[in-house]
Design brief:
The protein has two domains: 2-178 and 349-367, Rossmann fold; 194-347, Glycogen Phosphorylase B (Rossmann fold). 42% of the residues lie in helices and 16% in strands. It has helices at 15-28, 71-96, 109-115, 135-148, 159-165, 207-220, 235-243, 257-262, 279-285, 298-302, 317-328, 331-345, 350-367; strands at 2-7, 33-38, 55-58, 100-104, 121-124, 153-156, 172-174, 194-198, 225-230, 248-252, 266-269, 290-293, 309-312. The chain is built from 13 helices and 13 strands. Helix 6 packs across helix 11. With 368 residues, the protein is an alpha/beta fold.
Length: 368
C-alpha cells in the first residue's frame, strides 16, 4: 500500500513533526510504501530522523516569501503561490498514484479535494475543533470545517474532540498520538521535592494560573521547588516573572527530558486548551503522577482521576493547589500513583496505536 503524507515541512522540532516522523518510520518498517510531500522544506534538515525508505519530495513553494510584501501585493503573491502548489502537487500525486493521502487540518483542504480524485483523504486533527481565537479565525474555521467534512475520514485525538467533529463529518475516528515512552528499567522514585512543568512558554499553557497556584502551594511547602522546562515566544516574559516567585527554576528545553522526569516527583499542567498533551504520558511512563486542569480535551482522556493523577476543573486554583499539596505531603500516595501511571502510559505505545491506523487504511482502501 502506498501512502502520501502532506505537510509544509519537517524543519521544526515540534510535537506534530515528531509524531509524523514516528508514524512514517513505523509504516515503512511494516511493508508500506511511504511518501512525504512538503511545500517548504527547502534545504532544512529533517527535525527528526526518517527511515531512508521514506521517499521525500519538496515542492519548493516557499509560502513564507509572501510576507515580504504588504496588503494587496501579499494577497496576490499568496494566490500565485497557492496556484503553483496546487499544480505541482497535482503532478506529484498523479506520478505516485497513492492508495491513501494523509494531511492535517492546516492544509488547504478545499484545493486538495479537487486534486485527489478518487483517492481516499484522511485529515488528522492535531488541534481542537473549537479553537479560542479571534472572530477572523472563527470564520476561517467554519470554512475549513465545511471542506474537511468532505474528506473520507477525519482522525481526532480524543473522544471529546471527536464529538465536535461529528457535526461536520460522518466518518470520524479517534486515534491517540504515539508517545515516546520510557523504555528503560529506571523510573522516578517520587522522593525528590520537585514539581515539574514541561511545555512551550505561550498563552495556551496558562502559566499565569500556574504561578498563582504555586504561590499558594509554596506557603505550605517552602522546601519544594517548581522546575520549568520549555521555550516559546513568551519565554522572556514568563522566565522574568518566574524569577520573582519563590523556588521556581526555569530552564530551556532539553533532549534529556526523560532524565528530568526521573529526578522529579509530580508533573503539573495548567493549559487553557490541550488537544492531547504529549508530556502527560511521557512523564507518566517515567513514574510521575500528574495534576492537570481539565482543559479540552487531552488531559481527561489520559489521566484517570484519583488513580494516576488528578484532573481539576478549569480555573479552580484552590482545588488545584489542594490536590498538589496532597501529593507533596504524602510520599506513599505519590509512589502508588506513579506506579499506576507507568502501567497506564503503555496505552500510547506505537505497538498499541499504529494497528488502529492500519485498520483505518484497510477500511478506506476496501471501499475505494
Amino acid at each position: 500500500m502506498k501512502i502520501v503524507y502532506l505537510y509544509h515541512s519537517l524543519a521544526v522540532k515540534g510535537g506534530i513533526e515528531r509524531i509524523l516522523a514516528d508514524k512514517m518510520n513505523y509504516l515503512v518498517n511494516h511493508g508500506y510504501k511511504v511518501y512525504l510531500i512538503t511545500s517548504d522544506q527547502g534545504n532544512h534538515e529533517m527535525a527528526y530522523p526518517l527511515d531512508s525508505r521514506v521517499r521525500c519530495l519538496d515542492l519548493d513553494i516557499k509560502f513564507h516569501t509572501r510576507y515580504k510584501y504588504r496588503c494587496f501585493r501579499r494577497m496576490i503573491e499568496a494566490r500565485q503561490l497557492s496556484l503553483l502548489y496546487k499544480e505541482r502537487l497535482r503532478k506529484s500525486i498523479k506520478e505516485i498514484s497513492p492508495d491513501i493521502i494523509c494531511c492535517t487540518t492546516f492544509q488547504d483542504i478545499h484545493s486538495l479535494l479537487k486534486i485527489k480524485g478518487n483517492i481516499p483523504l484522511v485529515v488528522e486533527s492535531h488541534v481542537n475543533f473549537s479553537h479560542p481565537d479571534t472572530m477572523l479565525h472563527h470564520i476561517q474555521n467554519i470554512w475549513n470545517h465545511y471542506w474537511i467534512g468532505k474528506a473520507e475520514a477525519v482522525v481526532t485525538l480524543t473522544d471529546g474532540d471527536a464529538a465536535k467533529w461529528n457535526s461536520v463529518s460522518h466518518n470520524v475516528h479517534v486515534i491517540p498520538n504515539i508517545v515516546y515512552l520510557n523504555n528503560t528499567p529506571s523510573y522516578s522514585d517520587c522522593t525528590e521535592k520537585r514539581v515539574l512543568f514541561v511545555g512551550r512558554f505561550t498563552a495556551q499553557k496558562g502559566l499565569e494560573e500556574l504561578f498563582a497556584i504555586w504561590n499558594r502551594v509554596h506557603e505550605k511547602y517552602p522546601e519544594w521547588a517548581l522546575d520549568m522546562y520549555g521555550d516559546g515566544e513568551l519565554w522572556d516574559v514568563y522566565s522574568h516573572k518566574a524569577k520573582e516567585i519563590n523556588n521556581i527554576h526555569v530552564y530551556k528545553s532539553t533532549k534529556e527530558i526523560a532524565e528530568v522526569y526521573k529526578k522529579s516527583s509530580i508533573l503539573v499542567l495548567t493549559s487553557v486548551y490541550e488537544p492531547f498533551g504529549l508530556v502527560i504520558p511521557e512523564a507518566m511512563s517515567c513514574g510521575l503522577p500528574v495534576v492537570s486542569y481539565d482543559s479540552p480535551y487531552g488531559p481527561a482522556s489520559i489521566i484517570s482521576d484519583g488513580e494516576d493523577g488528578y484532573v481539576i476543573p478549569m480555573h479552580r486554583r484552590q482545588a488545584f493547589a489542594d490536590r498538589l499539596c496532597q501529593l507533596m505531603g504524602d510520599e506513599e500516595l505519590r509512589k502508588e500513583m506513579g506506579k499506576r501511571a507507568i502501567a497506564s502510559s503503555q496505552r500510547f505505545s506505537a505497538e498499541r496505536i499504529m494497528p488502529m491506523w492500519k485498520k483505518l487504511f484497510d477500511q478506506l482502501t476496501s471501499f475505494s
